[in-house]
Design goal:
By secondary structure, the protein is of the alpha/beta class. It is built from seven helices and eight strands. Strand 4 (82-85), helix 4 and strand 5 form a beta-alpha-beta unit. The two termini are 23 Å apart. It binds 5-O-phosphono-beta-D-ribofuranosylamine (GRF). Residues 10, 12-17, 44, 86-87, 107-109, 134, 173 line the site of 5-O-phosphono-beta-D-ribofuranosylamine (GRF).
């Protein structure tokens, strides 16, 4: 089985990156991480260095064109098939997205198309939502608007604030990304082998997954 070569782009704590990394270590998971790109010195950057991935920090580069040029050279050099944005805070140009059409995935902390953009946990509380969730989608030229691969939903409790909600959602997001990525790769016939989602469903009774 040929594994799909991933590049992970991140700017933050790196929990999604970490869970993808753990999944990729399994022999039957259809992907492997070949490159990690960070736009700032962050926890995810340190994790990646520790795990000994090829980790590139491109910071203080406000020129979008120069940033993406550098990134493109790296992606080619490392024969990347698919990019996973995992808490990456830079918006990619439409030119870049066009060049990588259907080859960039993102995880967004809301049940899209509700609440694209920033501050989703706060917005969920402000709107009195009873459920919240997260979405893994293909990146297109719009803001958090590409085709949806998988979503999860959790209950919002009356005493949840934005930090509590973010923390509660994170562990399910980590699982959602791993499973959605796997589905995306298999659906695109990069590999054939299917694994089941039974264990996850049993373990997490207070969350709905649809992948
Ligand atoms: C996640 O909440 C994700 O939905 C959003 O950024 C956060 C990244 O978290 N895009 P982490 O850095 O993977 O822990």
């Amino acid at each position: 089985m040929k594994k799909t070569n991933l590049a992970i782009f991140l700017s933050g704590t790196g929990s999604n990156f970490k869970s993808i990394s753990e999944a990729c270590l399994k022999p039957d998971y259809p992907a492997m991480i070949k490159l990690v790109i960070c736009d700032r010195d962050c926890n995810g950057y340190n994790i990646s260095k520790k795990l000994q991935y090829k980790t590139i920090l491109i910071k203080h580069l406000n020129d979008q064109f120069a940033f993406e040029n550098k990134v493109t050279i790296l992606l080619k050099k490392h024969q990347i098939d698919l990019i996973c944005l995992a808490g990456f805070m830079k918006i990619l140009s439409s030119e870049f997205v066009k060049n990588w059409k259907n080859k960039i995935l993102n995880i967004h902390p809301s049940i899209l198309p509700l609440f694209p953009g920033l501050n989703t946990h706060k917005k969920v509380i402000q709107h009195g939502m009873k459920i919240h969730g997260s979405t893994v989608h293909i990146v297109d030229e719009g803001l958090d608007s590409g085709p949806i691969i998988g979503q999860c939903a959790i209950k919002v409790n009356p005493d949840d604030d934005k930090n509590k909600l973010a923390e509660k959602l994170k562990k399910y997001e980590n699982m959602l990304y791993v499973k959605s990525l796997e589905k995306f790769i298999r659906k695109n016939n990069i590999t054939e082998n299917k694994t089941s989602f039974k264990k996850a469903k049993k373990e997490y009774n207070d969350v709905i997954f649809s992948i």
